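Protein: NADPH:adrenodoxin oxidoreductase, mitochondrial
Species: Castilleja foliolosa
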Amino acid sequence: MVNLMKLRLISRRFSSFSSNPLRVCVVGSGPAGFYTAEKLLKTHERVEVDIIDRLPTPFGLVRSGVAPDHPETKENLPQIVTNQFTRVAQNERCSFFGNVSLGSSITLAELREMYNAVVLSYGAESDRSLGIPGEKLPGIYAAREFVWWYNGHPDYRDLDPDLKSTDTAVILGQGNVALDVARILLRPTAELAKTDIAVHALNALEESSIRKVYLVGRRGPVQAACTAKELREILGTKDLGIHIQQADLVTTPADEIEMKNNRIRRRVYELLSKAASTGHARVPSQRELHFVFFRKPDGFLESDGRNGQLGGVRFEKTTLKGDDELKQVAVGTGVHEDISCGLALKSIGYKSVPIEDLPFDSYKGIVPNIGGRVLADASQDHMKYETGLYVCGWLKRGPTGIIGTNLYCAEETLACISDDIEKGILTSNSPKPGKEGLAHLLDSRNQRVVSFDGWEKIDAEEKRRGNLKNKPREKLTTWEELLKVACE
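Structure follows.
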């Protein structure tokens, strides 16, 4: 935990060093970026923070990653953090620059010239690859792409997954994102119509032929990566048949130790066991969700009747190796089986992307860092930091955790920044152009910038359109619409 008294002391010392503000640019306006901005503004009275994002809309996965059918209550975390982040953006020492892409609108080197410090928190906008045969067949998507499609992300407005040519979908992975995707595919569209799901996705789901979804995991029910809350939600979906093989629920001594040491895993296992024991008789036309364990994908199969299209997934059965001292891992047994499907969604993890002039660990998919300070040289013999360059969020630690995890991540990065201020590594003695310089450069390149006021125009228009349909909002889903409303 960051020592707040120490940070306040550092802030007072910094205020006495120079009359110039310390200018910090945060790249990425998701939870990691906004938490970092909030902490900087609260801790250091003479810091000015500019937040840039390649989208015209702020809030990252809070807007484009949270499933639209999650209950809308006062206690809803996404709404709470959105309100919190709005207050940050409205701070007189904070500015938002939307529709500004790092790498094309402006380079990292240019930002580092304009600001005393740059914090990169642009998350993970790519996906891990399985590296198995047939992975490029039409009908196979990353779960991220599908989530962004139904959440109205402008990059995936035209994804247009074919939901009418098959009655079966296979989802690889059993984490919360996998459960979200399965629930959207299987939930009655009359219920989805009351949410802020993108209208193009709702229309496609209304015509969907998908009636059966397989959620497939490499390991067993004890190791399922979802939370009890998400699992409980999908198990409670109306008119949904749940199918789990009793044989998959048999536990080993190592499983029992895992559950003893992890309350969430025990609760998930209990929920799955209860769902399996309840029993679900097959009803014609009823939608089905099948939990399949101890299977790893070995290849995607081409359809016999639809040349060049996905026809199924080949799996290798697995068994677990390891004990109470080691993490149990899935090991192939050499026995294979196929599941026929016309749609496959890979929910196997997000991946950050490198940019020019930025050290990057391609294997881990992160920027090499210690506590948030970017390493220029991560060799064992010598470690050199990139002065004034920091990371936060998934780019720092990998695609793990929930919204709140980024709060603690931001506090750790803030502690590094504050320490560098105290040591005189970061100083405002030489003025930096900051937001004025950024605005001038972007203007010279004819870059249309969306301010936070512009986002509020988008927000108001989406709510207005949603109100006409008795929905929370009707999202604008194309770049053209978003920029037109924001800049009019």
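Remarks: Confidence is low (pLDDT under 50) at residues 4-17.
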